[in-house]
Design goal:
This protein has about 450 residues and is α/β, with parallel strands linked by helices. The chain contains 19 helices and eight strands.
């Protein structure tokens, strides 16, 4: 989402780098350009104005140290102010230590509310909590079925009734949770295409009944300032505790994410950047500020890697690297682990300096799907000993994977080149990256 904003900010800040000192003129010129960049990104007008004023005051009030350039200093000031704009510290979800934790999820229709309920239930279940989902979105066709489909793979039960009565559903669902020993309940409420009194009244009644531990407003970040306006109106009516930003992997300009905390005055607690159930992250203002300024987010990347890669398997893989015994079977395991971490473009965006470079690059996650299909069409013997892959075997693999013989030949050739590279590096006592010589197009 922030690639365009990052690129424009980076280009603007380049103009003050290399200058001997910060002056009122170069600060004014730079901040005028940054203000324009923020408004182009659909940041709220007042938020952009206040942000620029804060940066200006701090830039003009500082002496430039001899060890730092003007560009570095003003970048640091902007980074600090971005963190403040985004909320300062991360805000954790509250849990009830002495009873049932009840999480009320509200938002407009199409915001990704039901999907978020599934993602949150997975996250909380992995923290050893006994989770129940209550399907209180009784109006939207197939909403209850969608929740059940999301919950099925993670074995989280969904409570629903046949009547079109959200308040009754919640009352009975809470009774069931108490009787059955659940310690966490997530309530998926109904959304509308726009805010109306009937919707607000129903949500307010449900909130009064359950007295939730946490109320979360889910907002589609791709709707720009409309998202900010709906968040403000919802808060006035429901007074929720935190915000969830969805669809951060989309093509919107990022204005909602930068404006919403300041306008509404409520913390962003989670961000969602994909359809998979594990595509949910705790919101870290400092990490997002770093990414916006093109500095990457190595901490999040490492955390994703730790979650996705098994420590024992990693040690085994290391040993195979050293002995030059890495085969297609090992490669397949690595592909599956990488897919768990998220899209390739989002992962590359976390690496410092790569965000702007990959903006217009054709990074197709389907390429990994093709490679996986080819390897899955091989027998175990073929994966372990690729040298036996003759013409007939390659034809069979291409047919079984729905690819061409050229695709199979390309993969086998690139894999062979990678093995040679690893062999050379092992002889020199080094270790190479798994994907250095692989280009899956």
């Amino acid at each position: 989402m922030f690639e365009d904003l990052s690129l424009k900010l980076e280009n603007t800040l380049k103009k003050v780098r290399g200058q001997g000192k910060l002056t009122e003129k170069n600060i004014s010129d730079t901040l005028r350009e940054i203000r324009r960049v923020l408004l182009d990104a659909d940041v709220n007008y007042k938020v952009a104005k206040d942000f620029i004023e804060q940066v200006s005051q701090k830039a003009l009030g500082k002496e430039v140290l001899s060890s730092i350039s003007p560009g570095q200093l003003i970048t640091k000031i902007i980074y600090d102010e971005l963190i403040i704009l985004l909320g300062g510290d991360r805000s954790e979800i509250k849990l009830n230590g002495s009873g049932i934790t009840t999480i009320l999820v509200v938002g407009l229709q199409g915001s990704g509310k039901t999907t978020f309920c599934g993602k949150l239930s997975k996250r909380l279940k992995e923290s050893n909590l006994k989770v129940l989902l209550i399907a209180a979105d009784v109006y939207r066709p197939a909403a209850i079925e969608q929740l059940k489909i999301l919950a099925a793979p993670i074995n989280v039960p969904v409570f629903s009734i046949s009547e079109q009565d959200a308040v009754k559903t919640v009352r009975l669902g809470m009774d069931y949770a108490k009787e059955s020993g659940f310690d966490t309940v997530i309530i998926d409420t109904a959304g509308r295409l726009h805010i109306d009194e009937e919707m607000m009244e129903e949500v307010a009644r449900i909130k009064e009944i359950v007295n939730p531990t946490e109320s979360l407003f889910v907002v589609d970040s791709m709707t720009g300032q409309d998202a900010v306006n709906s968040a403000k109106l919802f808060n006035e009516k429901v007074n929720y505790d935190g915000i969830v930003l969805t669809k951060l992997d989309g093509d919107s300009r990022g204005g909602a994410a930068l404006s919403i905390r300041s306008v509404v005055g409520k913390p962003i607690k989670f961000i969602s950047n994909g359809e998979k159930l594990d595509a949910l992250e705790i919101f870290h203002p400092d990490r997002l500020a770093s990414r916006i300024l093109g500095k990457g987010d190595i901490i999040s990347l490492v955390e994703k890697a730790q979650e996705s890669f098994d420590e024992v398997e990693t040690r085994k893989l290391e040993e195979k690297f050293r002995k030059n015994k890495f085969d297609f079977e090992d490669f397949l395991k690595q592909i599956k682990a990488i897919k768990k971490m998220g899209s390739l473009s989002s992962l590359l965006g976390m690496i410092p300096g790569l965000g702007s470079q990959v903006k217009n690059a054709q990074i197709d996650d389907k390429a990994l799907v093709k490679v996986e299909a080819i390897i899955n069409s091989m027998t175990i013997n073929e994966r372990i000993a690729p040298k036996i892959l003759n013409g007939n075997r390659r034809k069979r693999i291409a047919k079984g994977s729905g690819t061409s013989i050229q695709d199979v030949n390309r993969l086998v050739k690139q894999f062979g080149e990678m093995q040679k590279m690893m062999s050379r590096m092992n002889q020199k006592g080094g270790a190479g990256s798994l994907f250095n010589n692989l280009k899956f197009n």
